[in-house]
Amino acid sequence: MSDGTAPLAFSCNVPSGSPATPGFVTSTQASQLKALPRTDPRWIRSVQRFMRDFETPNLTMLDGRSIEFWVFTDDANGNVFPSPLIRVTEGDLAQVTVKTSKGVHTIHHHGIEPDAFNDGVGHTSFEADDYTYQWQAHHAGTYFYHCHVNTTLHAQMGLFGPLVIDPDPFYDPAVPTGSRRLFRGGPVYKIANERIWAVYAADPRMHGLNHEAGLCGEDVGLNRFSPKYFMINNRDQKNGAITPQELAQPPQPPPDRPPILDPKIAISAKQGETVLIRTIMAQYYPVTIQFGDDAHPLSASIWGSDGRPFRRTFSYKGENEVGDCVSVNGIVTHVMSPAERWDFLINTGDFPLGDYPITMLYSHWITGQPVGIAATQLSITAP
User: Fold this and answer.
1) What digits encode the pLDDT tens for the residues 167-193?
2) Peptide linkage before 169 cis (omega within 30 of 0)
């Protein structure tokens, strides 16, 4: 413990290094493992390799303000926020190399839980500037990866990206071309109608801090989160902040808040198609997601939670069987907490043609007062 006058040794004394990956599987060994029967616990489907470096791009918000972000990047995607998608299939052996050109970082594959060396938590292993994390994909679902160095700050700075595990098609060869199944025994969705939304909010003050700010116990305000920009992926909502004046009585006229229509975020689907929305809660305020509004009621089903099939009943055995989905007719709202991932399915055949708003309402974690909004839409078109 610390009274604030002395550094926290646990925070500061984290080893750094670039060791060899224990049990690293070479290409030759991978060929041998792939040839084993699927029933052999050593069997792997394939090796999927990913490279990640560290970069500091600037994003310009709608009001013209430029904010520095930190991202993991690769040669193929460039300096994008959120960091590039890691996508593998059940049975794949993932080898993710982090080779940072600035400072030490780790990659924690959130929800995967391998051994300590490959878990990417510096305090239980090390902080690296060149290391290959190795783990095998087992459960289809939505995950994400992030830096676990000075985590509160580095995650807010943008050092995170989506991670998706797809089910092994060997067990489900009948899925139509252009579609996928969420998990074994789960729903089928059209690939073109899949969206991955990082629900995010940026606090410009925190983006002005340095790499090690607060790491040794000094008070730099990491517990004071005051976001000014409310975002879905890399797009901020126009007039996203909810001001005290807007909440005052009598109610003030709401500002102009057009939905975010970037085609990588907004969805256009033909009536009768299924839509899958994978959400990643990537900031520190609770968010209520609302599907539809009074004029355009829309319902969604919850099929996945934190990389597992969603079930309302408790099973101490933890089997990966299909759980109960949650579907509510009319307007659906659902509260999401930091680091959670939720998979929502919408059957567009249940609704008339038209545009349906999908709104994220951010609330203060102590007062519960609304502080921000980000919105996009689902457009249902003629078949």
Assistant:
1) 999 999 889 999 999 999 999 999 999
2) no
Clarify whether residues 150 and 222 are in a common domain.
no
Point out which residues pair with 180 in neighbouring strands: 189
| pTM confidence score | 0.93
Which residue type is seen at 242? I
d(CA 147, CA 105): 6
CA gap 200, 366 in Å, rounded: 18
Q: Residue 18 in contact with residue 130, Cβ under 8 Å? A: yes
- Residue 14 structure tokens: 């984290």
Phi/psi of residue 54, each to 5°?
-115, 130
Q: 287: which strand partners?
A: 336, 362
User: What does the angle CA 375 – CA 377 – CA 383 come to, to the nearest 5 degrees?
Assistant: 175
Tokens of 58: 């600037």
β-strands 267-270, 370-381 pairing: parallel
Do 183 and 88 sit in the same domain of this protein? Answer: yes
Same domain membership, residue 221 and residue 167: no
8 A C-beta contact, residue 133 and residue 23: no
**Would you say residue 183 lies in a domain?**
yes
